Amino acid sequence: MEQNTATEGPNQYRCRLCSRAIFTADNIIPHQPSKPGVLGKDPCTSLFLDCAPWLEETAENDMKLLCPNPKCKAKLGEITLSGRKCSCGKWVAPAFQVNKGNVDEMRPIKL
After folding, report:
1. Which residue range forms the structural domain that includes residue 51?
2. 39's torsion region: left (phi>0), alpha (psi -120 to 50) or beta?
């Protein structure tokens, strides 16, 4: 029986405006929050990515991180090579930062 690859693998993240698949959970650089969240919630409002090829193509003036869809070009986050402080207080360098509010997390369907 052939397996459906769309229902397997890591979580996928899509542009909130156009729904284009942008990256997967494998591209996220994990970090330990410097301070705990309120009521057990995640204190991080951003995701930090490793340098994927589409990041280089969509970087505008080495600052804005844009959706790679040419019809969308929504701002997803920022690129700061010197690093950036996460909302949890942890410093991440270099910072390929995507705001969680600009992407939708798509979890694989378990059959």
Report:
1. 11-31+41-104
2. left
Token representation of residue 78: 């920022």
In a domain, 61, yes or no: yes
The number of domains in the chain is 1
Q: Tell me the two tokens of residue 96.
A: 């390929």
Report pLDDT for 28.
92
Report the side by side order of strands in the sheet with 95-99: 46-48, 95-99, 75-80, 64-66, 59-60
18 occurs within a structural domain: yes
pLDDT tens-digit series, residues 73-97: 999 998 888 888 888 888 888 888 9
Whether 96 contacts 48, CB under 8 Å = yes
In degrees rounded to 5, what are phi and psi of residue 108? Answer: -65, 145
Q: What is the CATH number of the domain that holds 66?
A: 2.170.150
